Amino acid sequence: MLTTPATPSQKKALSSQSAVSLNPSIAPTRPSLDRPERDGSLQPPSANVAVATRNLSASSVSFVARGASINPSFIAPGSFSSDLRSQITQSRAGSRADVHNLEKLDEDDESVAEHTLNALKDSLNREVKIKEGSENLLEALNTKKAKQTKEQRHKVEAELSASNQRIKELRQKISDAQRTKIAPSTPVRNRNDSFHQSGLRSPPSASRSGLGSDVDEPFESPTFALAETLQALEVEGMTPEYYVGRANNLVDLFKRHPTLKYDLVWSVFGDRMQLMLLSGSREVVAAGYRMLRYAISDVASLKNIRALNTDYMIVVSLAKDRKADVEREQALKFVRAFLDVKDGAREISRAIIRAIVSVAEHTEDRLRPICIETLAEVLLRDPALLIASGGLAPISEALAEGTYKSPESLSAVLLFLLDAPQTRRFLRAGYDLEVVFTAFTDVLFLYEGVVKQNIKAISLALKTWSGLMSLSMFNFRAIRSLVSCLTLPNNTIRDTILDLLYSLLRIKPPSWATSYLAGRRLTTYGRVATLKSAVPSKDEMVYDDEGMEQNFVEHYTALLLAIFIESGLMPSLVQVAQHAEDPMLKRKATLLIGEILKLASRILPPSWSCELQLLPELFAAAAKFDDESRFNATSIVYQISSVSRTLHRSSASGYTANGLPSAGAMEMASSLDDAQRHNASTNTDDATFRQLLVDSNVLSSSNPAKWKWDIMLKVIEGPLTNSKRLEEAIKASKFIKSVIGFYRPFKYRFSEVPSTRNTQKYVRVGCALIHTLLQTAEGVRYLTDNKLLRQIAECLAQCDPTSGLTAQYPMFSRDRLTDTLCGGYFPILGVLSSDPKGVQMLERWRIFNMMYHIIDFKQRPDLIKLILANLDYSLQGHPRVLLSKALTAGTKDMRIQATNILRKYAISQRIAFSGQIISDARWAIQLLVTQLYDPEVEVCATAVKILEKACNSKPLLEYIVECRPSLDHLGEIGAPLLLRFLSTSIGYHYLDGLDYISNEMDDWFLGRNDTYVSLIEASLARSFSENADDHPNRLSMYDEVDMDGDQDSHIPPHFYRELTRTKEGCQLLEDKGHFQEFASTIRDYGMQSDDQELITKVKGCMWAVGNVGSMELGAPFLESTDVVERIVEIAESHHVMSLRGTAFFVLGLISRSVHGLEILSEHGWLSNTTLLGKSFGLCIPSNLSKFFSYKPWQHETPSSIKLPDTQTTIQEAASVIVDEAIDTNRRALELIEVELGDMILYKKARVELHQMRHQKVPGFRQPAMFRRVLGILEGHHYKLADRHLIIELFDKDVLRHIIYGEDSSDEGDSNSGDEQRTERQRSVSDPADLEVTVMRTHQSSI
Predict the structure, then answer these.
(1) Which DSSP letter does residue 724 get?
(2) Which end of the chain is least crowded, N or C, by CB within 10 Å?
(3) Confidence band of 342 (pLDDT split at 50, 70, 90)
(4) What is the pLDDT of residue 909?
(5) What is the bridge-based pairing of β-strands 917-918 and 910-911?
(6) Dist CA 1271 CA 1208 (whole Å)
(7) 244 to each of 44, 198, 944, how far by Cα in Å?
């Protein structure tokens, strides 16, 4: 019967399946099915089982039947692993007794398709590595003599070709597999066939609905299926496979009908779950935990589950040994599911946390990492519960010893708690976070892997305000200890700390750093080469007006650098540079010293950087003329000087030690350098020129593999730019003819070369050659008469649907563009489109006409992408028309790509020698404004971002306003661009006419100001985060990582900042009185730390004040109030660490204005300025101890924390009445509670408990005694082995009495949910209505 709980005989029958012990894992090592039959409940996997299996229902083995889906449609609540498989066995007719078929218990396993996809991706990665290795080997072979390596080169080329083919096939297979994975597939499931073959009577509808068709699946009655499954679970005496199969069916039902769990009748469902949890089979117990996990819906369901006395069962399960891992893992997943429910942590008992702590402390346990992660999550949700349960010790131990592979996730939890005083009291000042430094300071137990792991946690801590404030306590004790580790004679520690400093200070080493570390000298040739690549070209210079954005990342970096300098960084680096045994480490430290000196002169105030530049320790050592060590010090001084000079010459930064150079000066210096290098390369004598032609091997060999391509490039970019030399190369030698012939498509030389990293030099030389030919009349004449362009046009015509030309294998087919250098012809066409003479040649061969047709028909998106990406749009003409066509008439992806192409042309500005801006971006601005009306929002968003970047230039901003774009239809997407319009008077009046300003101002004042806080904090978090992987070697930090991306410097625009840029906006702000309101809020509520909403309000007001104060026109507002003084007070004495950080950034904004910097200097905050006195906005306090002024706080001890009743299983162990008059009871309690905690008596106590277990003491069969012992386990800390021993003392029937509450007065707890049943629930559970419900379902199915 579904509505009545199981009878005592039924409970006893199912619980009798348990083994001799309460913990089956302590029995012999064979699985439960291999043990001798007990009470006739379980059968061994022999031939006898085959007969019994045939009498069972088909669904007892159908949970892994063919066609059944066991892939979950969503992530299971509380799940953490997809590798759990059932340990039960299934017998087959005719199979050997010792061969079992593992059944899948957890449906979180990856599907076959996912395994196939992963295998294909692994194969693809392997093939890509083979391809790269082949390319590198081929490049090495090309440097040797061709005759000696001919055979080997052929083998490598064959392998490379085969690898390319395999890569192509694998990518196709991955694409097909992903399409198959996306396609929905409904599993064929025979839901009710269990009652056909089992001999049990089935409802009539069951046989009708179990046809196994996809059509019937949506029409199943979930309520009826639930009742049917629960009734099946009530059957006694079946094998574990039977119950696990029904449990899987029930979980699958919960997945298909997620709302079904809200209608459960817990008196019925809970009774079945209790029967499952009391089973003697580990797999059945695990299935019970899994069903309970999927039945969780809200806090009320958690209370119903706990009313089933599951706390006791979880404690018992987690105390079992490794043979019961399937049960322990599901029990842990079940506990983790509590954390997925809002306020679910309040329903986790202290007894359960104690059990998890014991597993987390057991170093050899497989579940230890996930237990540590679970404890960290509980610490985040409810720190009081974890501290009271002693759960912080395993987390600290994992951080200190490096046993947890992701220490940054654990330290992130500690950093979150350290931020506010309400949560900070649960941690100890100067201990819990600083344990990560143990790997560096404890040199006796140094492990390189632990050092590499913990450096991530340290890096994360130093990039957050709570971490920086905490580690700076006790006079920067933790940071000083880290810096002092540089003096230890350990290369691993030194190298790791140097890499950390490069990362924290965001130093991107120059391109010549790798050569320098390898031991090469910084020659003049190297400096010129790097200078050429480092200085931006004149076409790429971007003009920024004086109101450019504040760089908060550099502001934070300035503070970090000041802290490290205060902690003695420079003397430690000098010592490494002087005394390190590894020469590469010495050079690395020397380079870092040069970078720090350069960085300090740029971002630190003069009072900080001037003394730093002296390096007193190093010069003092170099001046000791009677000491031989002075030679080493002198060498270091010379190297630092050389590095500093080279860094200064190759600096691409806009900053210098003396401030920002003018744009005209940069342009003039670049032009003079270009002119000098050009003259040096073109003015070569005849002998040198001819020798260069001979050295290139073009004249002596027709095999391009033997040509010296670096010399060819030098000749083409140098002497051939002289018309006389070019004429000589054309008429007097075959150099130009041979090279041009190599590029002709139908000679199948260049067009058949495989596309690899090594062969890209052919494309570069080809582009350089075309560019050189276009510079002289002789070159233009030669190029016009050559067959090169005609053949390229013919190849392009093969892809033009209107040309009439076809080819079986077109030159520009998809495969050829991917596998060969045929795609290299489009950069060549791009070079031609950048010159008026080249455009005329393209028009002559109707190449533009064919491009129009290709874009119109949209049949080749890959070809269109190549065309658009490589054409040059600097000149007015066909290329811009092609781009305009793609912007308006192309597909969505084509329009997005074309819009992104406009970025370079809309932002870049040409700057004349006089500093005047020569604008060539207006045509791009017009096209971008047109894109704002695109029907696709993604295209509009892309255009908005580019236009917003272009607004950094005041002339371009005024021109964008003149275009009068309408952005109402874009909503929030267009808001940042409208805000930028406010920065000019033209834009102000334009927006004022639209009634935008007053509405937006009220919106920001009433709520948007608070929303901006979360927006900018998320932006700053992205800026500070670093996605770099572990450094595999010492030189990995020199990989090309873009640290200057948009996310680093870009911050969300603020309305009041843009409003204060104009006099009209300042007048409006004064009339509205918003600034005075902000100042009043900061004054009244700035120092409170209890209300989170008020803290957010104060942050929003500070950001508004900072943005207004950063403008020169905002000076009167700062004068009228004492708000700056209040913000300084918050920065130096507030209890919330993140609020101090916000105040620090706001003070940086205020310091950008002259008046704001004067006010801050009065309060001891300084900033670096240009020679003209303009501040960079990177202000830091002159006395760091005022800013880092936190004192140790009083932390909560576990004994002082009072937990609510919902978080305790047994309130007081002493309150459980046990007959202590019996000597064995009293002695057992004394051993457990006292002597197991005594280090001296520990071993003797364990031996005595073992003896009492074998003596079968009567007290161990009493539920009251079990409750008393569990209360002791809940209140005290015990090792996992001790918990296992204590629980094993008790008889197996004790837990059944505890679960059903047969020894207490709370038997009705499990029925507490019966009073709140819905009408639908009663229809399922009432026996009088069950038959009517079944008949109605049957009739509806007919």
Answers:
(1) H
(2) C
(3) very high
(4) 63
(5) antiparallel
(6) 9
(7) 17, 16, 57
Contact 1109, 1150 (CB under 8 A): yes
- Cα 1008 to the chain's mean position, in Å? 28
Beta bridge partners of 918: 910
> Is this prediction's pTM over 0.85?
no
What's the rounded Cα separation, in Å, for the pair 348 and 1207? 6
Write the DSSP assignment of 841-888 as a string of letters: HHHHTTHHHHHHHHHHH---HHHHHHHHHH---SSSSHHHHHHHHHHH
- For the chain, percent of residues with pLDDT exceeding 70: 76
Residue 25 corresponds to which tokens in the numbers above? 């894992």
Instruction: Provide the pLDDT confidence category of residue 934 given band limits of 50, 70 and 90.
Output: very high
CA geometry: angle 891, 895, 901, nearest 5 deg: 145
Q: Contacts from 1332-1341 at CB under 8 Å and sequence distance 24+?
A: 1333/223, 1333/224, 1333/227, 1334/203, 1334/204, 1334/205, 1334/224, 1335/204, 1337/203, 1337/205, 1337/221, 1337/224, 1338/203, 1338/204, 1338/205, 1338/208, 1341/205, 1341/208, 1341/209, 1341/219
Burial track 527-537 (b if 16+ CB lie within 10 A, e otherwise)? beebbeebbee
List the Cα angle 299/301/302 in 5-degree steps. 65
State the Cα–Cα distance between residues 569 and 574, nearest whole angstrom: 9
Question: Residues 302, 308, 310, 311: is their CA dihedral positive or negative?
Answer: positive
The residue with greater pLDDT, 442 or 1116, is 1116
982 vs 1310: which has the higher pLDDT: 982
Phi first, then psi, for residue 1181 (nearest 5°) are -70, 145
1097 neighbors 1013 (Cβ within 8 angstroms): no
In this prediction, residue 548 has a pLDDT band, given cuts at 50, 70 and 90, of: low
Q: How many CB atoms lie within 10 A of CB 104?
A: 16
Spatial CB neighbours of 355, under 8 Å, sequence gap ≥ 6: 314, 315, 318, 319, 1273, 1283
Overall residue count recorded for the chain in this entry: 1342
Q: What phi and psi values does residue 778 have, to the nearest 5 degrees?
A: -65, -40
Q: What is the mean pLDDT of the chain?
A: 79
* Alpha carbon of residue 734 to chain centroid: 56
- Has residue 1045 got a pLDDT over 60? no
Radius of gyration of the chain from Cα atoms? 38
Confidence at residue 412, expressed as pLDDT on a 0 to 100 scale? 94
> Residue 1180: helix, strand or coil by DSSP?
strand
Instruction: Tell me if residue 1154 falls in helix, strand or coil.
Output: helix
Q: How far apart are CA 509 and CA 502, in angstroms?
A: 8
**Which residues have a Cβ under 8 Å from the Cβ of 354 and sit 6 or more positions away?**
315, 389, 390, 1273, 1274, 1277, 1278
The arithmetic mean of pLDDT across residues 1174-1191, rounded, is 90
Report yes or no: 410 and 372 within 8 Å, Cβ to Cβ: yes
Dist CA 961 CA 974 (whole Å): 14
Token representation of residue 39: 């009470």
User: What are the pLDDT digits (tens) for 95-152?
Assistant: 333 333 333 444 444 456 677 777 888 888 888 888 888 887 877 777 776 666 777 8
Rounded mean pLDDT, 1292-1305: 76
Token pair for 4: 């009545």
Query: 């209790």: which residue's tokens?
Result: 274
- Rounded Cα distance, 22 and 1270, in Å: 15
Q: What is the pLDDT of residues 600-631, one digit of tens each?
A: 989 999 888 877 777 777 777 777 777 767 77
Maximum Cα–Cα distance across the chain: 120
Per-residue confidence band for 41, with pLDDT thresholds at 50, 70 and 90 = very low
Structure tokens belonging to residue 1178 = 């990177």
> Which of 16-30, 418-432, 832-846, 1155-1169 shows the lowest per-residue confidence on average (mean pLDDT)?
16-30
Q: How far apart are alpha carbons 18 and 23 in whole angstroms?
A: 9
Query: What's the DSSP call for residue 576?
Result: H
Bridge partners (DSSP) of residue 659 are 656
Q: How many C-beta atoms lie closer than 10 Å to residue 309's C-beta?
A: 20
* Phi, psi dihedral angles at 1337 (to 5 degrees): -60, -40
